[in-house]
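Hi team,

Below is the intake form for Flagellar biosynthesis protein FlhF from Limnobacter humi. Please confirm the fields before the structure is written into the shared record.

FORM ID: S-0412
PROTEIN: Flagellar biosynthesis protein FlhF
ORGANISM: Limnobacter humi
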Amino acid sequence: MKLKKFTASTTREALQKLRAELGEDAIILSTKRTAAGTEVLAAASQDLDDVAVQAEKPQAQTVSPASWTRNERQQYETLSKPAPQASRADLVAQQVAAQRSSLLSPSAPSMAPEQRFEPDDMMTEVGRRRAQAASQAMVNEQAAVLEEIKQMRQLLKDQMNLMTWRDSLEKNPLKAELWNHLSNAGFSPLFARTVVDKLPAGLTENQAMEWIQSVLKKNLAVVDAQHDMVETGGTYALVGPTGVGKTTTTAKLAARCVVKYGADSLGLITTDSYRVGAQDQLRIYGKILGVQVYTAQNHADLQQLRTSLQRKRLILIDTVGMGQRDSRVAEHTKILTDSHVKRVLLLNATSQTETLDDVVRHYKSTGLDGAIVSKLDEAIKLGGVLDVVMRHKLRLHYIATGQRVPEDLFLADARVLVHRALKNRASQAFSSSDEELKWKMAQVSTTGL
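The structure came back. Fields below:
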């Protein structure tokens, strides 16, 4: 069988040469790109038929000698067995491979097997890549257009909000002053706008401020003296992040109970086995009050202690401090809820409003019985902590104003807290100008932060 190479600058020209010399029935064996252009290796169909005929010719028979020994006969039978014949396709492939090796020029650049394509495959691959590139370009262009539209929409929204706010100011100029006042006091922009938008028209400045105070006091839920923890009794666990004053507040509540109802009315439990000296601190307070402090390491310990202390009027549990994102919070909360313990969250008045909001959201997952605001004596602004308490509809039990036990603990008073929150103003260095506040007000959504 004879193989022939046809080289041309394009595949079309090479195929034309092939058909002109070998005819329309020629068999294309391979196609590749070389430095000279496209090279096509082909053979005439008649040559392949000749190869097949030769492969099918019977092999010459070996004639056995006239006489032989037994061993010679066995050797002859072994040698005379016909060898397994290769198929027609295998013979053709072997001869084609041999001819190709002899025809390929060693100087011509060759391509890796994975880079050789048939003409149709090459066109298909090129078209696919071009389609992908065009599709990606279109996607990028659409994304850019959508982003521009989004920015324009937000700009128009801000402009409309600003115009609406200016119209509102023209009708009631006190709104701007009250919004600025609430914002500088630490309340969130959304909270301030929600309150100010409902301001009645026709009020004087003093009347407007009184109206604001009445709204805040109405929305700040506090526990009255007849229903505080010491009076109602029960089992309470003080929970919250590290450093908010849980142990000190537990001691203050314990002292109030002992003073009013005696040492036998109180049970003290601690679950804080992580901090060095945490149990010792509470035990010192317990020794002063004449109350034994018990330690609960797990759910079983807590259940057993609750059973043994069930006759106590008030049981206080000092828990380990954990950040609101700590994975142990959920585990510890489950232990307390399974033991039917009421949880009271301590909120540090000096923390950022966003942090306090995050703390409540994580600790509130299974319900809270209320909150206690600590470190009130260290806080410059109270608007943030009151904002969070009202936003999450928490009941305030007490406020802690220092480290003294038991003096620095008071029942929560809405009137006092609101008055102090509106009285405290940020220093000039941390205050925004009127124009800055107006722009900020215009960008605050009326439906969420």
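SUMMARY LINE: Residues 1 and 48 are 7 Å apart (CA to CA).

Thanks, M.
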